[in-house]
Amino acid sequence: MKLNPLSNRVVIRFEEAEEKTKTGIILTASAQEKPQVAEVVAIGPGKLTDNGALAAMTVKVGDRVIASKYAGNVVKLDGVEYTILSEDDILAIVE
Question: Torsion angle of alpha carbons 55, 39, 11, 88, nearest 10°?
């Protein structure tokens, strides 16, 4: 199955949370901090401006981005967890 976001929506997959600290301490699931770095999996066509033109998306599929921690809606598809959010909730592109 494939996700095709609408408007200026972006589908991302967050990287896995760290299970160990740098010193080797194993963290429980509740102690792991939610990662903010994610990979862009799919993008919508863009947002319509007030004059009816289509504003192009800034991110592209494959980009690594930093997203707001609690933005978007989490969906599970084929056993994989994705987050669908507005492009406005993406804070930066990681290069």
Answer: -40
CATH, residue 50: 2.30.33.40
What residue type is 2 in one-letter code? K
Instruction: Write down the pTM of the prediction.
Output: 0.78
Half-sphere exposure of 13 (CA within 13 A, CB side): 12
- What whole-number distance in Å separates Cα of residue 95 and Cα of residue 83? 21
Q: How many residues does the chain have?
A: 95
Domain that holds residue 84: 9-16+27-94
- The pLDDT tens digits for 15-68 are 875 556 667 666 555 544 556 789 999 999 999 889 989 998 999 999 999 998
